[in-house]
Amino acid sequence: MAEDLVLDTAIRDWVLVPLTVVMVLIGVLRYFVSKLMRSSQSPDAKAIKEGQAVIRARNLRAGAHYIPSKSFRSRKTYFTNEENGLLYVPKEEAQKAQAQMFQDPNMAMDMMKKNLSMIIPQTLTFAWVNFFFSGFVAAKLPFPLTQRFRSMLQNGIDLSTVDVSYVSSRSWYFLNLFGLRGFFSLILGEENATDDAQKMMQMGGGGLGGFNPAQNMGAEKDSLDIIQHEWALPSIEHRAELMLRDFMKKY
Q1: How many Å apart are CA 84 and CA 91, to the nearest integer?
Q2: Cα separation, 161 vs 3, whole angstroms
Q3: pTM surpassing 0.70?
């Protein structure tokens, strides 16, 4: 049977609150350090044009059912034509663009700076938490949880008799590490450099970050080629009548 623990208020004052404050301050500091380390590059007009073409093609797919079939086919041809379509990229040019992207020293340097700005602070912070706060039961969640959450919430505590709702100091560190994204977006803006989960996914992918025009344009072209168009407006009167009849039946 799980045991109920009485947490000392000193744990709140000297473990829980300091750990949360330090994680927030480190995130804010890393945001400004990343801005200082970021190299200023003039936007590439061609890349911007290709990115806008991809956005327009996505909007066409999203609203395809609200335009006639003839209008959709003409727009589809405008984007996917094999000779001069906006989304058509020759195979040789796509391979060349990808090779140039991986050979760009500025992009590789920016990626290295971003990785360093994430790895170094979090390594030092984890070592600090593991040295000073290891083994503490820092908090108790106000709702019950199943046993599947024990390994996530009680990292560093090898006691199976403790209720799952208790959170260890090490687990509290990881919850703050991946759970403060909304808070940082609120105080720093949506385009902030403190999204550790997204950075780790990019590092695990093994590629350089950034917009890959050839890959995105090719994927959007394939999506437009396979879409099945069906105009929704010719039957709108019948659908509106059915909806009105259902509404009148209810009231």
Answers
A1: 14
A2: 6
A3: no
Tell me the pLDDT tens digit for each residue of 80-90: 988 888 888 77
What tens digit of pLDDT does each residue of 193-238 get? 555 555 544 444 444 444 566 778 888 988 998 988 888 777 777 8
CA–CA dist 141, 21 (Å, integer) = 19
Do the beta carbons of residue 155 and residue 126 sit within 8 Å? no
Residues shown for the chain: 251
Report the candidate in 209, 189, 173, 176 with the shortest Cα–Cα distance to residue 32: 189
Closest listed residue to residue 67, CA positions, set 230, 223, 236, 235: 230
Q: Cβ contacts of residue 61 below 8 Å, gap of 6+? A: 223, 224, 227
86 C-beta neighbours (distance < 10 Å), count: 19
Pair 138, 174: CB distance under 8 Å: no
